[in-house]
Amino acid sequence: MDDKRLLEFYGGECPHCIRMKPLIQKVEQELNVVFEKYEVWHNPENAKKMDEYDKGHCGGVPFFYNTGTHKWICGAVPYEQFKIFVSEG
């Protein structure tokens, strides 16, 4: 059973998060995956959920987590690095 989930934690006005949006859309289409998206700047419940996965690794957004590999990405990254992160697990 595949229990891999891709999580995106972002801030609504975060410039780095906005810069990652086209990369997220592209990788979702190319790899036929969907990110669970959680806005954390205006939603305390989502911020708490981010803390549960972040565990002090990043402390900011955008924060991406792959539950299949337990790997994460902090901040904006190049597309090829992001695609590898998504395709693992």
Question: Could you please describe the fold and organization of this structure?
Answer:
- This protein has 89 residues and is α+β, with helices and mostly antiparallel strands.
- It has one domain.
- Helix content is 42%, strand content 20%.
- It has three helices and four strands, in the order βαβαββα.
- Helix 1 packs across helix 3.
- The longest helix is centred in the N-terminal third of the chain and has 17 residues.
- The chain is globular.
- It starts with 5 loop residues before the first strand and ends with a helix.
- The mean pLDDT is 95.
- This is Thioredoxin domain-containing protein.
- It holds the Pfam family Thioredoxin.
What topology does this entry show?
Layout: E1 6-10, H1 15-31, E2 35-39, H2 44-54, E3 63-66, E4 71-74, H3 79-87
Parallel strand pairs: 1-2
Antiparallel strand pairs: 1-3, 3-4
Q: Which regions have little confidence, pLDDT < 50, spanning 5+ residues? A: none
Please give the alpha-carbon distance between the first and last residues. Answer: 12 Å
- How many beta strands in the DSSP annotation? 4
Overall mean pLDDT: 95
Profile the largest sheet.
4 strands, mixed
**Computed Rg:** 12 Å
Strand order of the largest sheet: 2-1-3-4
How helical, in percent, are the residues?
Answer: 40-55%
Proportion in β-strands: 15-25%
Estimate nothing, just give the exact number of structural domains.
1
Succession of helices and strands: EHEHEEH
Principal-axis shape: globular
Q: DSSP helix count?
A: 3
